[in-house]
Amino acid sequence: MKYIVRKAVVLAAGKSTRIAPLAQGLPKPLIEINGEPILARNLKWLAKSGIEEAWINLHYRAELIRDRIRDGCQLGLRVHYSDEREILGTAGGTRQIASKWTETFLVLYGDSLVRADLDLMHQVHSASRAHVTIGIFNRLQHPHTGLAGGSVIIDSDGYVVSFNEGTGPGSSSLVNAGLYLIEPDVISEIPAGSFCDFGRDLFPQLLASGVPINSHLIDGYCLGIDTPEAYRCAVRLIKQGSVRLI
User: Fold this and answer.
1) Disulfide-capable partner of 180 in 85, 107, 223, 231 (CB 3.0 to 4.6 Å)?
2) Which stretches of the chain score pLDDT less than 70?
3) Which pTM value belongs to this model?
């Protein structure tokens, strides 16, 4: 059986504060890796994975993203835009886009290069009957650039137990990769018109309410490009062959 997700939200509204010295005024998703913007690489990957339409949320230097990506046809899918007068956060921005959707959809952080088998991830998600499945990576095994944020604690069946800030001794080596499959009924749990973050706000709230969140260990890599150091790490991993860009 072929599992198909047709819609994706690609988050691209951030202000690029931490990577400003390198970005030189560009939104983070337009920073180039090997001559091509991160966002364009992500959209081409989504198209190859079966995604037909992507919605991009915009705030900082929105016109630059619109001018570069246009309607997405040259990348293999249709692109739509959602403008945010005030930044709504990862979950808040997703609610503004997906409030009326009725099918499973994908969320991807636009300034990260994450690669995984999306069909396999959807199989895992569908079999689990979870409301959310989070793509995770093992920081001891997978190529990565040291994403900010806490680790993910899962049980023996792969369901998320908690999010643990920090990566010190005793914490999990599993980290949120910023790749989510989400059921539409979850959207109503996000406050409308307010700032809400997936990792800090929504997911802990869902766990506290007993809503199951599943996990899927990706088979690729996770390159978060959010600081100059992370960018240099990504370039190094690519040059040394630890990461093969697709």
Assistant:
1) 107
2) 1-3, 147-150, 165-171
3) 0.94
